[in-house]
Amino acid sequence: MAVVTEAPRGRRVAGRIVGAAIVASAVVLSAWVYLLAFTHPRTDDAYVRANVVGIAAHVGGPIVELPIVDNQPVEAGDMLFVVDPRPYQAALAIAQAKLDLTQLEVKALEDAVRAAEAQLAAREADSSYAHQYLERIEPLLGRRFVTPNDVFEARSRSRAAEAAVASARAEVAKARNLLGQYGDVNARLQAARAAVDDAQLDVDYCFVRAPFKGYVTNLNIAVGEYANQGRQVVTLVDGRTWYVLANFREGYLSQIAPGMDAEIFLATYPTHRFHGVVQGIGWGLFQKNGSTVDGLPAVEQTLNWVRLAQRFPVRIVLQEPEADFPFRMGQTAVVTIRNSR
Question: Which CATH number among 2.40.30.170, 2.50.20.10, 3.10.20.880, 3.40.50.880 corresponds to the domain 40-83+214-337?
């Protein structure tokens, strides 16, 4: 009987020891997980992102060339599409012809200015001679070497010469105004050249090229479609910078700061580790509760006993993509902040 009694008692003691060990292990493990979560914040609510840019035409017209296909990678400067340039080339030819005519007109106006200035010089010479002649004969009137009529005619010629000088000066001013010269710049030529530059710019706008390295996506157009000015025609995914938007619970934000290193795993490549750097943490979230409706705050009635932690987006700039592991927008990511506070 003693043996039977001792066996159950030994099992109970062993069970208590095992139970205590399990509880202690659970406590240690929980503490370790809690400490790990706050020293190396981690989230699987994260996605790969890139900037998406809509490419629009600066001029309107039918598309006559479309050398790209959907999902095609492009380099900066690659041709995306061509808008029919013929109307704009015709406008350029007209503007160039007007510039040529303006150059001839300006040359003729410059000649007119020089002619007016020469006429002014002649009138000034005549006026100077008439004035000097009057000064010579006026003293002779008292000595009766000239008659009063001679002096009167000399004065009339002097006044007429002065009037002719004033008229010549007005003609010079008029010719200069018609020339449109302001310092070293001729307004007529400048306006004509600006019209040519504007027409040339429209011709250049017909040939739409990729502004950066990227990827064509969601291409749903064909040759012959009309490209409206300012309306998006092609969508490019900017391949220069890739980043991950990782949504971390607000309790972890104190452990995250710009410049920290991050470790990223993507569902597309589950065994490959990527690296990134924290660029910044979002400063605000949209909340339906508290938004303004008709000028008044909309506050919903709640009876929540559990308050869920908000998640704020943390932007992490990824390293340069590897050829064997390309990034794609929307890939699911798991992010761990390694050098947290």
Answer: 2.40.30.170
Q: Hey, what are 321's tokens?
A: 């993509």
CA distance 79 to 83: 11
pLDDT digits (tens, 9 = 90+) for 112-134: 888 888 888 888 888 888 888 77
- Give this prediction's pTM: 0.71
The predicted-structure confidence for 130-160, as pLDDT tens digits, reads as follows 888 778 877 876 777 777 887 788 788 888 8
- CA geometry: angle at 202 spanning 201 and 205, to 5°? 85
Could you state, in order of their start, the residue ranges of all structural domains in the chain? 40-83+214-337, 86-204
| Alpha-carbon separation of residue 93 from 59, 118, 203, 261 (angstroms) | 17, 38, 11, 58
